[in-house]
Amino acid sequence: MRGRTISPGKARGEALVSRQPIGFYGGVDPKTGMIIERGHELEGKCVKDKILVFPCGKGSTVGSYVIYGLKKNGVAPAAIVNRETETIVATGAILAGIPCVDGIDIDRIKTGDRLIVDADEGKVEFE
Prior knowledge:
Layout: E1 4-7, E2 10-17, E3 51-54, H1 63-72, E4 79-82, H2 87-96, E5 100-102, E6 114-118, E7 123-126
Helix pairs in contact: 1-2
């Protein structure tokens, strides 16, 4: 699948997929990488080392710093794949150096799929 490079880099790993937007500020614990937003479909799941797949971000601009905090604390996703990356997630991924691609048909990906993300080329492939 070909998309658009948001933040360069390469990663491979297991997909963790949400059909709901993710709000990082108040929705993800920057110390543990756990999704803590009540009622979110990924509540209780950890983003660490996963290829985090979700349609788009939501919420406060502080979410960019939460993404950066995830990286500093060693609990960040290996890569981020979106249908549409908005400014909050883009800024966080760039600050943290997390490969990020958007313009991807995320409906084709399910949790547990093994993915290769080549954000330098804007590509996401099944392993």
